[in-house]
Design a protein that fits this description.
268 residues; alpha+beta
Length: 268
């Protein structure tokens, strides 16, 4: 399930799932996506946790990839155990690690490999809670294999969407005397001119999407220098943000390489 246009996030797409087995709800999932990257959250209800948790989670990620085209999955530190004792007690880090997730911080990756070597030589060993807390200090990523993704491996490692918001805030403080209405108005004007948008026939929801996305698009370097096809694709992306489902929005974003690289730079 998705979110109606009037309640959507300005930049990321949101999708959620309620999972049933034999008609009984057993888990829920949420994903917040940008291009091919999805921030994922998963919770299996206590009663069912000794069952097919790993299989079920893997199938959900596969489904999200099929529906939305996402290939990079990000796990928040809380999911792994940061400020979450349940995650520490359950050894959540190893649940994700065995599925192929890796810490994005080099120091945590080094600690992971050290612990894996110790576990390999001593099958009875259990990772201490102290080590699990250290391992839970950063994000984890899963990059699912394909030719395109292999060439892009590691590009999302330092990305955090809040950095994009901070970049907008800095622009507002520096260029607009911290006045929200000024930056909103001038960002829309800049984007409409830079992308040569003709919005006289756009629906109200599409105009609302433009008003929100313009804050970010206006600080992506060089959008006015994009080629005609890139500008046309950007216009379709804005309109798709207000479409029936945000799947189209994501799939169009995944085709815009210069927008993608610009936003990764802003968020890293």
């Amino acid at each position: 399930m998705g979110v109606p246009p009037e309640h959507r996030l300005p930049l990321r797409a949101y999708h959620a799932a309620l999972i049933f087995k034999n008609g009984v709800p057993v888990a829920y999932f949420e994903g917040l996506s940008l291009f091919e990257r999805m921030e994922s959250g998963f919770n299996l209800y206590y009663t069912f946790r000794d069952g097919e948790t790993t299989w079920l989670y893997a199938r959900i990620l596969r489904l999200m990839r099929q529906l939305l085209g996402v290939t990079v999955f990000s796990i928040d530190p809380y999911q792994v155990g940061h400020e979450n004792e349940e995650g520490i007690e359950s050894g959540a880090f190893w649940f994700y690690r065995k599925l192929g997730f890796r810490p994005v911080r080099p120091g945590l990756m080094k600690l992971t490999r050290s612990e894996e070597r110790k576990l390999a030589t001593d099958p009875s060993r259990r990772t201490s809670t102290r080590t699990l807390r250290k391992l839970a200090a950063g994000h984890m990523l899963l990059e699912t294999p394909n030719r395109v993704q292999l060439a892009r491996s590691g590009q999302w490692d330092r990305f955090e969407v809040r950095n994009v918001g901070i970049a907008v805030q800095r622009s507002m403080a520096r260029e607009f005397k911290s006045e929200p209405q000024r930056i909103r108005t001038q960002s829309v004007e800049f984007v409409k001119k830079g992308l040569q948008l003709r919005t006289n026939r756009w629906r109200e929801a599409e105009i609302a999407a433009l008003n929100k996305l313009a804050l970010v698009l206006a600080i992506v370097p060089g959008i006015e220098q994009w080629g005609p096809d890139e500008k046309q694709l950007a216009a379709r992306i804005i309109q798709a943000k207000a479409s029936r489902d945000e799947a189209l929005y994501l799939k169009l974003m995944q085709k815009h390489e210069r927008l993608r690289s610009g936003l990764i730079r802003l968020g890293s």
